[in-house]
Write a structure and sequence with these properties.
It holds the Pfam family CO_deh_flav_C. GO terms for molecular function: FAD binding; oxidoreductase activity. InterPro entries: CO_DH_flav_C, CO_DH_flav_C_dom_sf, Diverse_Substr_Oxidored, FAD-bd_PCMH, FAD-bd_PCMH-like_sf, FAD-bd_PCMH_sub1, FAD-bd_PCMH_sub2, Mopterin_DH_FAD-bd. This is Xanthine dehydrogenase family protein subunit M. It contains 12 helices and 12 strands. The strands form 3 sheets. The chain has a 5-stranded antiparallel β-sheet with strand order 4-5-8-6-7. It has a domain of 100 residues: CO dehydrogenase flavoprotein, C-terminal domain (Enolase-like, domain 1, 2-Layer Sandwich), CATH 3.30.390.50. With 339 residues, the chain is α+β, with helices and mostly antiparallel strands.
Amino acid sequence: MRPFAYERPTDAATAVALASVPASAHVTAPVQYKGGGTTLIDLMKLDVMQPTTVVDITAIDDEAMHRIVPSDEGLRIGSLVTMAKLHADPSVVRDYPLLTESLWQAASQQLRNMARLGGNVLQRTRCLYFRDTSYDQCNKRVPGSGCAALDGSNRGHAVLGTSDQCIALYPGDWAPALVALDARVEVLGRTGKRLIAFADLHRLPGTTPHIETSLSPGELITAFIVPGGPRRRSLYRKIRDRESYAFANASAAVAIELDGRTLRDVRIGLGGVATIPWRAHRAEGMLRGQELTEANARAAAEAEFGDARTREHNGYKVVLGKATMVRALLDAQAMEVPR
């Protein structure tokens, strides 16, 4: 690990001032925030990330950033809340099972105790070519260098949202749940606070895969806002190589409202198959207002994966992704929902 300066501000404005230096918003930015550090420190040890300054935000004395606040309008979650704290919150367990299930199936208990939710949604790709600096070709790590995964080992790479410059997978479990629930993100920058749709937080790789989010340099996530709407009949299904501590080969975050067997509303987020947390708008459009049958669910899944682009080793993700979506929809239909 390279030498770096360490700052531990006690208020958010000071943290933002320390981090708001002229820089491009990618891996080479000289200042990085650290929450739990479960991703950042790992990548610093691998020499993938080389910040000259680390700003530890865990000492920020802003109660709102550490609290979970439910209301009739929805849910406000501070960005410094740990994964473990949200997963154990009784009101979230009852009213937002999708959020708690996706956290329970992520990482290990030790990591969930450390990791903060703001950092969780910004975790970096698990692509081996990104994380191993002995490979020269990685447009995400070294812009313009190429993508070794295109013709390399790509079993774990994305099939949706890819480009000729990058096929790296977004690895998180909680983000597909947030995108399915139409969450918003509160961020603080030098000019003040702003709200953005969670669906707009992550950027498709396109020709600039090194720019992963819509955040400006120095902007700090302070909270997540989850509105009301379909939430109690919601769940998360994750398929992985082993049951414990493994990233998704395919996952589906589903929230539905039923009128008998007809879908009054349906929200679907996909993980394990795309370069960003993926909102399945095409499938939702086909299902909304229709009877939820296995045949209709399969047709919607076929349509959602119609534009999938596979490489030599990851074609199975299309079959698995469709089956996971169908299973999640039918399991949500069969849920017993508390009144």
